[in-house]
Specification:
Elements (H helix, E strand, L loop, with lengths): L4 H16 L4 H8 L5 H15 L4 H6 L6 H13 L2 H57 L7 H11 L3 H26 L14 H24 L4 H10 L4 H12 L10 H9 L4 H62 L2
């Protein structure tokens, strides 16, 4: 089972601190594992055992299914850049920012979902009771209720099967909570671009992409500063965000450098990196690009935290109003309109 993002952040901080202290990782990780939570402590002990057997840190993590591929790429990039601690701290900072926003998103959407589920149950019960009554009432006056008339007629048929009706109506909140739980579980084990917010949270998806760009630019700057070949540096930097599209674009840009432009952020950036011969200018540009991407991500996350509760209240208010209009106002209003027009 893959580690949660909280556990990966903790492991990044632990390894970075040990590297800065210049202590052997094998003994230090084994000793620190006793103070960590059970699951994370077990993983750290297994990692220490692999290091003692002669495997490198990147090999040990790459061969462990509990770690995402991006984490192994981060370790490898840190080792090749000669700044493992800085690379781990950089990734931990961005993942921590995304984790905090994810936690806010989950907590902010929990209350609207709970209220919507209660409202759906109450609406289902109300329709089951008043739907057949309205159907008989309109039939007695020989009126036809538009839109809701066929619904009330079907509810009259459902009156003989109350158990089947309520089981079918309960499927809606059950499916909704199942999707919510599935996303909570998988998002807690995601990092950077592997974190997939729901499509309607477009601000969070864009902030996620901005954080990935920031990580890519800053890791690439560390690798360029270590004088790695540009192809190798780009290959490692794209894998730290664990996006197969970026990896393919990085490879294709070197294999076919004059191919037509596509709607992509990475390809123009690679061509810009390849076109700058001066390393200092390149490092300064990557630094500014990373800071700009981080600033955009923070701005999007702040807007999300500001407007999500407001949108949730509007959603709940609209749902309550729509339910009241459909079950009470429209049937009674249409009946009065027909009776006064007789």
């Amino acid at each position: 089972m893959m580690l949660k993002s909280d556990q990966l952040i903790g492991l990044c901080d632990e390894i970075a601190a040990l590297v800065r202290l210049n202590v052997p990782l094998e003994d230090a990780l084994l000793q620190r594992s006793r103070d960590l939570p059970r699951k994370l402590g077990n993983r750290v002990r297994e990692l220490a055992a692999k290091l003692e057997s002669g495997q490198s840190l990147s090999e040990a993590i790459r061969n462990d299914a509990a770690f995402p591929p991006a984490y192994a790429a981060v370790i490898e990039a840190g080792l090749e850049s000669g700044n493992l601690a800085g690379t781990l701290e950089l990734v931990a900072k961005n993942v921590r920012m995304l984790r905090d926003s994810r936690n806010f998103l989950l907590s902010a959407s929990l209350y609207p979902m709970f209220v919507f589920s209660i409202l759906w149950i109450l609406l289902s019960g109300s329709l089951f009771i008043i739907g057949p009554v309205f159907a008989e009432f309109y039939r007695a006056f020989e009126f036809t209720l538009p839109v809701l008339g066929p619904v009330f007629d079907k509810l009259e048929l459902c009156r003989d099967y109350p158990t089947q009706y309520f089981v079918c109506m309960m499927l809606v909140p059950v499916v909704l909570w199942a999707i919510y739980g599935h996303w909570c579980y998988h998002s807690s084990r995601s990092v950077l671009l592997t974190f997939r917010p729901p499509p309607f949270f477009f601000w969070l998806r864009r902030a996620n992409r901005d954080l990935a760009r920031s990580t890519f630019a800053q890791v690439l700057a560390l690798l360029v500063r270590a004088n790695l070949p540009l192809h190798r540096a780009l290959w490692l930097a794209t894998r730290t965000v664990d996006d197969p599209v970026w990896s393919r674009e990085s490879e294709a840009e070197f294999v076919t450098p004059n191919r037509p432009d596509k709607k992509s952020v990475l390809t123009p950036l690679i061509r810009w990196v390849k076109g700058i011969p001066d390393q200092e200018i390149l490092l300064d540009g990557l630094k500014q690009y990373g800071e700009m991407s981080t600033y955009r991500a923070k701005s999007r996350l702040e807007r999300l935290e500001l407007w999500l509760p407001v949108a949730g209240m509007f959603f709940l208010g609209g749902a309550v109003l729509a339910a009241y209009l459909c079950t009470i106002v429209f049937p009674y209003g249409y009946l009065l309109y027909k009776m006064t027009g007789m």
